Amino acid sequence: MAHERGGAASSAAAPASEEDALFIDLLHEAPLSGHREPRSIVGGTLYCILLAGYAAVAVSAPWIFYLVPDMIPPLLCSSNVILLVLTGIFQQYWIHQVRKVRLQGYYDFSEKLKRIARLPFATIASGIALMLLIIVWQPLGQLLSISLLLRIIIVVEATCAGCFMSLYLWHIHKYNSLNGHPDILRSLYSALQPSSTLEDRRYYDGRLSDQQMALLQYQRENIHYLSEEVLRLQECLSKYQRTDVGSTPQADLAHLLASRDQELRALSAEMNQVHSELQLARNLIDEKDSETQRIRVSNNQYIEENDRLRAILGEWSARAAKLERALEAERISSIELRKTIAKLRGQTYKEQNA
Protein backbone atom coordinates (compact mmCIF):
# COMPACT_ATOMS: atom_id res chain seq x y z
CA MET A 1 0.00 0.00 0.00
CA ALA A 2 2.82 2.30 0.88
CA HIS A 3 4.56 1.37 -2.36
CA GLU A 4 1.42 2.28 -4.30
CA ARG A 5 1.20 5.63 -2.58
CA GLY A 6 4.89 6.24 -3.25
CA GLY A 7 4.46 5.32 -6.91
CA ALA A 8 1.43 7.57 -7.20
CA ALA A 9 3.34 10.43 -5.63
CA SER A 10 6.27 9.92 -7.99
CA SER A 11 3.96 9.73 -10.99
CA ALA A 12 2.19 12.90 -9.86
CA ALA A 13 5.48 14.70 -9.32
CA ALA A 14 6.78 13.77 -12.78
CA PRO A 15 4.24 15.76 -14.86
CA ALA A 16 4.34 18.60 -12.36
CA SER A 17 8.12 19.06 -12.55
CA GLU A 18 7.93 21.29 -15.62
CA GLU A 19 5.16 23.35 -14.05
CA ASP A 20 7.09 23.71 -10.80
CA ALA A 21 10.08 24.93 -12.82
CA LEU A 22 8.05 28.01 -13.74
CA PHE A 23 8.42 29.26 -10.17
CA ILE A 24 11.99 28.26 -9.42
CA ASP A 25 13.39 31.53 -10.75
CA LEU A 26 10.98 33.52 -8.60
CA LEU A 27 12.53 32.13 -5.45
CA HIS A 28 15.84 33.73 -6.32
CA GLU A 29 14.42 37.11 -7.35
CA ALA A 30 14.91 39.81 -4.75
CA PRO A 31 12.25 42.51 -5.07
CA LEU A 32 14.81 45.24 -4.50
CA SER A 33 17.45 44.18 -6.99
CA GLY A 34 16.25 41.12 -8.85
CA HIS A 35 14.78 43.04 -11.76
CA ARG A 36 17.87 45.21 -12.30
CA GLU A 37 18.55 45.56 -16.00
CA PRO A 38 22.17 45.64 -17.26
CA ARG A 39 23.25 48.73 -19.15
CA SER A 40 24.61 48.49 -22.67
CA ILE A 41 28.21 49.44 -23.50
CA VAL A 42 27.65 49.54 -27.25
CA GLY A 43 27.34 53.33 -27.41
CA GLY A 44 30.52 53.93 -25.43
CA THR A 45 32.42 51.36 -27.50
CA LEU A 46 31.30 52.98 -30.75
CA TYR A 47 32.37 56.38 -29.42
CA CYS A 48 35.82 55.03 -28.50
CA ILE A 49 36.16 53.57 -32.01
CA LEU A 50 35.11 56.95 -33.44
CA LEU A 51 37.76 58.73 -31.34
CA ALA A 52 40.45 56.27 -32.39
CA GLY A 53 39.58 56.70 -36.08
CA TYR A 54 39.46 60.47 -35.72
CA ALA A 55 42.89 60.56 -34.06
CA ALA A 56 44.30 58.29 -36.77
CA VAL A 57 42.93 60.57 -39.51
CA ALA A 58 44.41 63.62 -37.73
CA VAL A 59 47.84 61.99 -37.49
CA SER A 60 47.87 60.87 -41.13
CA ALA A 61 46.24 64.03 -42.51
CA PRO A 62 49.40 65.21 -44.39
CA TRP A 63 49.48 61.94 -46.31
CA ILE A 64 45.71 61.67 -46.84
CA PHE A 65 45.31 65.25 -48.09
CA TYR A 66 48.71 65.64 -49.72
CA LEU A 67 47.03 66.97 -52.89
CA VAL A 68 45.32 69.82 -51.01
CA PRO A 69 47.58 70.68 -48.04
CA ASP A 70 45.97 74.11 -47.63
CA MET A 71 42.63 72.44 -46.86
CA ILE A 72 43.95 70.48 -43.87
CA PRO A 73 43.27 73.16 -41.15
CA PRO A 74 39.68 73.88 -42.34
CA LEU A 75 38.92 70.16 -42.60
CA LEU A 76 40.32 69.46 -39.15
CA CYS A 77 38.34 72.31 -37.58
CA SER A 78 35.13 71.25 -39.34
CA SER A 79 35.58 67.62 -38.32
CA ASN A 80 36.18 68.70 -34.74
CA VAL A 81 32.88 70.61 -34.73
CA ILE A 82 31.14 67.51 -36.12
CA LEU A 83 32.78 65.45 -33.37
CA LEU A 84 31.45 67.93 -30.80
CA VAL A 85 27.90 67.49 -32.14
CA LEU A 86 28.24 63.69 -32.10
CA THR A 87 29.64 63.85 -28.57
CA GLY A 88 26.61 65.88 -27.48
CA ILE A 89 24.29 63.23 -28.96
CA PHE A 90 26.21 60.43 -27.25
CA GLN A 91 26.17 62.41 -24.01
CA GLN A 92 22.37 62.54 -24.05
CA TYR A 93 22.34 58.76 -24.46
CA TRP A 94 24.77 58.34 -21.56
CA ILE A 95 22.73 60.66 -19.33
CA HIS A 96 19.68 58.53 -20.17
CA GLN A 97 21.64 55.47 -19.06
CA VAL A 98 22.61 57.24 -15.84
CA ARG A 99 18.94 58.01 -15.13
CA LYS A 100 18.11 54.34 -15.59
CA VAL A 101 20.87 53.43 -13.13
CA ARG A 102 19.50 56.00 -10.68
CA LEU A 103 16.00 54.52 -10.94
CA GLN A 104 17.49 51.15 -10.01
CA GLY A 105 18.51 52.64 -6.64
CA TYR A 106 22.23 53.23 -7.22
CA TYR A 107 22.22 56.92 -6.30
CA ASP A 108 25.91 57.47 -5.44
CA PHE A 109 26.95 55.34 -8.39
CA SER A 110 24.75 57.35 -10.76
CA GLU A 111 26.14 60.65 -9.45
CA LYS A 112 29.66 59.44 -10.20
CA LEU A 113 28.60 58.24 -13.66
CA LYS A 114 26.89 61.55 -14.42
CA ARG A 115 30.07 63.50 -13.74
CA ILE A 116 32.13 61.14 -15.90
CA ALA A 117 29.58 61.19 -18.76
CA ARG A 118 29.93 64.97 -19.09
CA LEU A 119 33.73 64.98 -19.36
CA PRO A 120 34.11 63.96 -23.07
CA PHE A 121 31.92 66.85 -24.26
CA ALA A 122 33.84 69.29 -22.05
CA THR A 123 37.12 67.92 -23.42
CA ILE A 124 36.08 68.34 -27.07
CA ALA A 125 34.72 71.83 -26.35
CA SER A 126 38.01 72.80 -24.70
CA GLY A 127 39.89 71.50 -27.73
CA ILE A 128 37.76 73.63 -30.06
CA ALA A 129 38.39 76.68 -27.88
CA LEU A 130 42.13 76.01 -27.99
CA MET A 131 41.94 75.66 -31.79
CA LEU A 132 40.23 79.03 -32.00
CA LEU A 133 42.93 80.64 -29.87
CA ILE A 134 45.66 79.15 -32.05
CA ILE A 135 43.99 80.38 -35.25
CA VAL A 136 43.52 83.87 -33.78
CA TRP A 137 47.06 84.21 -32.41
CA GLN A 138 48.81 82.33 -35.23
CA PRO A 139 49.92 85.47 -37.13
CA LEU A 140 51.91 86.59 -34.05
CA GLY A 141 54.00 83.45 -33.80
CA GLN A 142 55.44 81.05 -36.35
CA LEU A 143 57.17 78.45 -34.16
CA LEU A 144 55.08 75.55 -35.51
CA SER A 145 52.74 75.28 -38.44
CA ILE A 146 49.06 75.66 -37.71
CA SER A 147 48.32 72.25 -39.23
CA LEU A 148 50.73 70.54 -36.83
CA LEU A 149 49.32 72.39 -33.82
CA LEU A 150 45.75 71.46 -34.76
CA ARG A 151 46.71 67.82 -35.20
CA ILE A 152 48.43 67.79 -31.79
CA ILE A 153 45.31 69.27 -30.16
CA ILE A 154 43.07 66.69 -31.85
CA VAL A 155 45.24 63.78 -30.72
CA VAL A 156 45.38 65.09 -27.13
CA GLU A 157 41.63 65.73 -26.89
CA ALA A 158 40.81 62.35 -28.47
CA THR A 159 43.13 60.63 -25.99
CA CYS A 160 41.60 62.43 -22.99
CA ALA A 161 38.03 61.79 -24.17
CA GLY A 162 38.91 58.15 -24.80
CA CYS A 163 40.30 57.82 -21.27
CA PHE A 164 37.15 59.32 -19.79
CA MET A 165 34.98 57.05 -21.91
CA SER A 166 37.03 54.00 -20.89
CA LEU A 167 36.49 54.97 -17.26
CA TYR A 168 32.74 55.29 -17.94
CA LEU A 169 32.65 51.85 -19.62
CA TRP A 170 34.54 50.36 -16.69
CA HIS A 171 31.95 51.74 -14.27
CA ILE A 172 29.12 50.40 -16.46
CA HIS A 173 30.78 46.96 -16.48
CA LYS A 174 31.12 47.20 -12.71
CA TYR A 175 27.42 48.07 -12.46
CA ASN A 176 26.44 45.13 -14.66
CA SER A 177 28.41 42.76 -12.43
CA LEU A 178 27.02 44.08 -9.14
CA ASN A 179 25.27 41.57 -6.90
CA GLY A 180 24.54 43.68 -3.83
CA HIS A 181 21.57 45.78 -2.88
CA PRO A 182 21.23 49.38 -4.14
CA ASP A 183 23.30 51.97 -2.29
CA ILE A 184 20.30 54.26 -1.78
CA LEU A 185 19.14 51.85 0.94
CA ARG A 186 22.38 52.36 2.85
CA SER A 187 22.28 56.15 2.75
CA LEU A 188 18.85 56.78 4.28
CA TYR A 189 16.74 55.39 7.08
CA SER A 190 14.73 52.42 5.91
CA ALA A 191 11.82 50.55 7.46
CA LEU A 192 13.41 47.33 6.22
CA GLN A 193 16.80 48.00 7.84
CA PRO A 194 17.90 49.24 11.30
CA SER A 195 18.73 52.92 11.45
CA SER A 196 22.06 52.35 13.33
CA THR A 197 23.95 55.66 13.22
CA LEU A 198 22.08 57.16 10.28
CA GLU A 199 19.55 58.94 12.50
CA ASP A 200 22.22 61.35 13.74
CA ARG A 201 23.05 62.51 10.21
CA ARG A 202 19.64 62.33 8.63
CA TYR A 203 19.56 66.05 7.99
CA TYR A 204 23.30 66.57 7.89
CA ASP A 205 23.87 67.77 4.35
CA GLY A 206 21.89 69.47 1.59
CA ARG A 207 21.76 66.34 -0.59
CA LEU A 208 19.27 64.68 1.72
CA SER A 209 16.17 65.82 -0.14
CA ASP A 210 17.69 64.74 -3.45
CA GLN A 211 18.53 61.34 -1.98
CA GLN A 212 15.02 61.02 -0.59
CA MET A 213 13.53 61.82 -3.98
CA ALA A 214 15.77 59.16 -5.52
CA LEU A 215 14.63 56.69 -2.87
CA LEU A 216 10.98 57.57 -3.58
CA GLN A 217 11.48 56.97 -7.30
CA TYR A 218 13.22 53.70 -6.53
CA GLN A 219 10.41 52.55 -4.25
CA ARG A 220 7.83 53.47 -6.88
CA GLU A 221 9.70 51.32 -9.39
CA ASN A 222 9.76 48.48 -6.87
CA ILE A 223 6.07 48.84 -6.08
CA HIS A 224 5.26 48.83 -9.78
CA TYR A 225 7.43 45.75 -10.26
CA LEU A 226 5.89 43.95 -7.29
CA SER A 227 2.38 44.87 -8.44
CA GLU A 228 3.10 43.29 -11.81
CA GLU A 229 4.51 40.23 -10.05
CA VAL A 230 1.40 39.94 -7.87
CA LEU A 231 -0.88 40.22 -10.89
CA ARG A 232 1.14 37.63 -12.77
CA LEU A 233 1.13 35.25 -9.85
CA GLN A 234 -2.59 35.76 -9.35
CA GLU A 235 -3.17 34.85 -12.98
CA CYS A 236 -1.00 31.75 -12.57
CA LEU A 237 -2.87 30.85 -9.39
CA SER A 238 -6.24 31.17 -11.08
CA LYS A 239 -4.95 29.05 -13.97
CA TYR A 240 -3.65 26.31 -11.69
CA GLN A 241 -6.82 26.35 -9.62
CA ARG A 242 -8.72 25.31 -12.75
CA THR A 243 -6.46 22.30 -13.27
CA ASP A 244 -6.22 18.98 -11.46
CA VAL A 245 -2.46 18.85 -11.36
CA GLY A 246 -2.21 18.69 -7.58
CA SER A 247 -1.85 20.88 -4.53
CA THR A 248 1.92 21.41 -4.57
CA PRO A 249 2.05 24.21 -7.21
CA GLN A 250 -0.93 25.97 -5.59
CA ALA A 251 0.71 25.87 -2.17
CA ASP A 252 3.98 27.22 -3.56
CA LEU A 253 2.15 29.91 -5.46
CA ALA A 254 0.11 30.92 -2.43
CA HIS A 255 3.29 31.14 -0.38
CA LEU A 256 4.95 33.30 -3.04
CA LEU A 257 1.89 35.54 -3.24
CA ALA A 258 1.87 35.98 0.52
CA SER A 259 5.57 36.85 0.60
CA ARG A 260 5.21 39.29 -2.31
CA ASP A 261 2.22 40.93 -0.66
CA GLN A 262 4.13 41.28 2.60
CA GLU A 263 7.06 42.84 0.79
CA LEU A 264 4.72 45.21 -1.02
CA ARG A 265 3.20 46.34 2.28
CA ALA A 266 6.67 46.82 3.76
CA LEU A 267 7.71 48.91 0.77
CA SER A 268 4.55 51.00 1.06
CA ALA A 269 5.30 51.62 4.74
CA GLU A 270 8.86 52.58 3.88
CA MET A 271 7.65 54.95 1.17
CA ASN A 272 5.27 56.62 3.64
CA GLN A 273 8.17 56.97 6.09
CA VAL A 274 10.31 58.62 3.44
CA HIS A 275 7.40 60.94 2.54
CA SER A 276 7.13 62.05 6.17
CA GLU A 277 10.91 62.58 6.39
CA LEU A 278 10.85 64.60 3.20
CA GLN A 279 8.01 66.74 4.55
CA LEU A 280 9.95 67.28 7.78
CA ALA A 281 13.03 68.28 5.79
CA ARG A 282 10.97 70.76 3.77
CA ASN A 283 9.54 72.23 6.98
CA LEU A 284 13.06 72.65 8.37
CA ILE A 285 14.15 74.32 5.14
CA ASP A 286 11.14 76.69 5.33
CA GLU A 287 12.02 77.55 8.93
CA LYS A 288 15.61 78.28 7.94
CA ASP A 289 14.39 80.42 5.05
CA SER A 290 12.06 82.41 7.32
CA GLU A 291 14.85 82.89 9.85
CA THR A 292 17.19 84.03 7.09
CA GLN A 293 14.53 86.47 5.91
CA ARG A 294 14.16 87.89 9.43
CA ILE A 295 17.93 88.29 9.69
CA ARG A 296 17.97 90.09 6.34
CA VAL A 297 15.21 92.46 7.48
CA SER A 298 17.09 93.20 10.72
CA ASN A 299 20.29 93.72 8.76
CA ASN A 300 18.54 96.17 6.44
CA GLN A 301 17.21 98.06 9.47
CA TYR A 302 20.70 98.21 10.96
CA ILE A 303 22.06 99.46 7.65
CA GLU A 304 19.42 102.21 7.48
CA GLU A 305 20.12 103.23 11.09
CA ASN A 306 23.84 103.25 10.36
CA ASP A 307 23.30 105.46 7.31
CA ARG A 308 21.17 107.83 9.37
CA LEU A 309 23.81 108.05 12.09
CA ARG A 310 26.48 108.63 9.46
CA ALA A 311 24.41 111.47 8.01
CA ILE A 312 24.02 113.03 11.48
CA LEU A 313 27.74 112.59 12.13
CA GLY A 314 28.53 114.23 8.81
CA GLU A 315 26.26 117.15 9.63
CA TRP A 316 27.86 117.64 13.05
CA SER A 317 31.30 117.36 11.48
CA ALA A 318 30.38 120.12 9.01
CA ARG A 319 29.12 122.31 11.87
CA ALA A 320 32.28 121.66 13.87
CA ALA A 321 34.39 122.61 10.85
CA LYS A 322 32.42 125.85 10.48
CA LEU A 323 32.87 126.65 14.18
CA GLU A 324 36.59 125.92 13.94
CA ARG A 325 36.91 128.27 10.98
CA ALA A 326 34.94 130.97 12.83
CA LEU A 327 37.07 130.47 15.95
CA GLU A 328 40.24 130.74 13.88
CA ALA A 329 38.97 133.97 12.30
CA GLU A 330 38.13 135.38 15.74
CA ARG A 331 41.58 134.42 17.02
CA ILE A 332 43.28 136.11 14.05
CA SER A 333 41.15 139.28 14.48
CA SER A 334 41.94 139.28 18.23
CA ILE A 335 45.67 139.08 17.49
CA GLU A 336 45.41 141.95 15.00
CA LEU A 337 43.40 143.99 17.51
CA ARG A 338 46.07 143.40 20.15
CA LYS A 339 48.75 144.52 17.73
CA THR A 340 46.75 147.70 16.94
CA ILE A 341 46.26 148.42 20.66
CA ALA A 342 49.97 147.94 21.33
CA LYS A 343 50.84 150.27 18.44
CA LEU A 344 48.44 152.94 19.72
CA ARG A 345 49.86 152.65 23.22
CA GLY A 346 53.38 153.12 21.85
CA GLN A 347 52.37 156.25 19.94
CA THR A 348 50.62 157.66 23.03
CA TYR A 349 53.66 156.97 25.17
CA LYS A 350 55.91 158.76 22.65
CA GLU A 351 53.60 161.79 22.55
CA GLN A 352 53.58 162.03 26.34
CA ASN A 353 57.37 161.91 26.50
CA ALA A 354 57.65 164.55 23.83
UniProtKB/TrEMBL annotation:
Alphabetized InterPro entries for the sequence: TMEM192
Places the protein is found: Membrane
Predominant localisation class: membrane
Cellular compartments per GO CC: late endosome; lysosomal membrane
Keywords: Coiled coil, Membrane, Transmembrane, Transmembrane helix
Keyword Protease: no
Protein topology in the membrane: Multi-pass membrane protein
Spans through the membrane: 46-66, 72-95, 116-137, 149-170
Coiled coil: 264-326
Coiled coil found in the keyword field: yes
Pfam family, one: TMEM192
Top-rank taxon: Eukaryota
Family the entry assigns: Belongs to the TMEM192 family.
Name the record gives this protein: Uncharacterized protein
